[in-house]
Amino acid sequence: MTALLKAQGISKAFGGVHALNNCSLSVEKGSITGLIGPNGSGKTTLFNVMTGYVKPDVGTVEFEGKDITNARPDKVFALGVGRTFQLTRIFARISVLENMLVATQREEGWLRGLTRSMSSKTELDSAMEWLDFVGIARLAKLPAGSLSYGQRKLLELAYVLVADPDVILLDEPAGGVNLTLINEISQKIRALNELGKTFLIVEHNMEFVMSLCHSVTVMHQGSDLVTGAPADVRSNPLVLDAYLGGSDDDDIIEEIAHG
Amino acid sequence: MLLQKKNLLWVVALVIALFVPQMITNPAYRQIAVITLIFTACATSWNMFSGYSGYVALGSAAFYGTGAYTMALMANHMHVPGNGDMFWLVPLGGLAAVVVAIPVGLVALRVRRHTFVVITIAIFFVFQLSAINANFTGGTGGLTLPYVPWQIQNYHLPFYYVALVVLVFAILLSAGVRRSRFGLQLLAIRDDEDRALGLGVKVFQVKLTGFAMSAFVFGMGGALYAMMQGQIYPQFVFDPMFDITIALMAFFGGFGTLLGPIIGGLVLESAQQYLTVTYSNGSLYLILFGVLFLLVILFMPQGIVVFVRDRMAQRQDRLESATKQVSNETPVAQGVHS
Predict the structure, then answer these.
(1) Which residues of B fall below an 8 Å CB-CB distance to A?
(2) A78 and B200: CB-CB below 8 Å?
(3) Which of B53, B44, B57, B49 is nearest to B201 (CA)?
């Protein structure tokens, strides 16, 4: 197995806060990799570094062996790294379908946008297909701002998928979503993975992570603490310590230990 | 069907616009008509960038003034005769505005929201002060353009039709942008710029292109105005009230809609000019506008176009649900009888 997306020795400080401290993470091609850790352990910052939203102070990010450390988000996306946000971000005042169309041409030059219509037939079809895949095709004509929180999560997933990225970074896909929808999202991810998509997932829902991921990395205070198969990570004393030391959330420790 | 009806309305509007000068023969009112067209074109163009992208620019008078000075300087230095030939300089005024807008955009578009508004205002004042103090702009005395010896009775006719061409151009440009991928990207930037960036939208290039494109119409408007007036002063072509007026037209009619700024421009500018001419009182309109805007903000904060559209949609819904109810009730009634 080769690493499709790799962060090495990343450090990032915001003022005096060391959000990331010599953190490394490797996402194998074709895998579903989980990223867990207590709140404030730097998971989202690592996501931001890996997708070009934040420049690291030290360290490198590689995608398919190419250095993308200081590439801007649009460039990173064009190369084939798609992401969602923890707090879902959609374009509220345009329609669901138009949301999808924003993302359809990831490698297109910006001047081309002036001379072409909003969408071609193929783009429209593929947008509708992906909306159908996540199950919100019937909402295509509505303004995206009128969607519920769960539907927004689905839309966000769909418009990342429509650009056909090779690796997809999901920031808490199950956060604030009901159980039925969590299972649905979990199934979609597995189905896409079988089609060859690689995933990196930040999530607090342990059952979700443990059942879905091939490999799990635990972060603690800005560094990667442990990486391994879900079963190994679960029983690792360091991990229990990290959660115990980092927060007083006994439920989570219980969940990690007994899953 | 609906689309054809819509297109028909545009054609009717254009035909009416073509015959306005035949209905209005008083030169003073014809001048009002020309200025109204120029301002409506500017409001449409302003909305094409600011309305779609959400970047409220309040320094566009810099481009209007640039167009006006370009017209004056070129006509004088190139010894263009005072006749219809000068109209060829109008697009050049637009181009000059684009050339100026690119560096302005490179600076201003690095910041967002309120900071962007303030930066555009500041840049505008740099232009105004430069025009007042530089030698080649004629300082406070401004510049005189070649005299166009047309009869006073029909003096404004050519200006009217050229201004109409500029307005139609601005509308087509705005409509084209709205339907293009580029327009979609502007709308995405308005809703969430960082998310758009993460979906491959080259936000800075898109913003800069939109900004420069809108400057083109401002430059043409300024050039046309300068030619018609025959004399320009820095405080009138680089006027801070210009941007307030343009922005209010767009907000009044419907910010971010194609039709809004057209309606806003036609209504407000003609009303302002009419009041000024009729009562020879340059500030009467301010009072009326103030009241009008309070009413608009209170009762239709998204502008007239959106307000009317929503009301029509509601009525449609009510009609539909009413017919549905009737068709639902019929079988029940039959059931009772049988």
Answers:
(1) 177, 179-185, 187-188, 190-192, 194-203, 205-206, 209
(2) yes
(3) B53
